[in-house]
Design goal:
This protein is an all-alpha fold. It has one domain. This is Methylenetetrahydrofolate reductase. Keywords: FAD, Flavoprotein, Oxidoreductase. It comes from Meiothermus ruber.
Length: 38
């Protein structure tokens, strides 16, 4: 989550997450980023 947050704050236009069949972890990252995306 921290790296994604730093990238978004640096102005990257988007993120691509590879789930590798770990969708709960990906969902958790996205839930954490909602703070940043608002």
């Amino acid at each position: 989550t921290r790296q994604a947050q730093e990238l978004l704050e640096a102005g990257v236009p988007g993120l691509h997450l590879y789930t590798l069949n770990k969708s709960p972890a990906t969902r958790r990252v996205m839930q954490n980023l909602q703070i940043v995306l608002r």
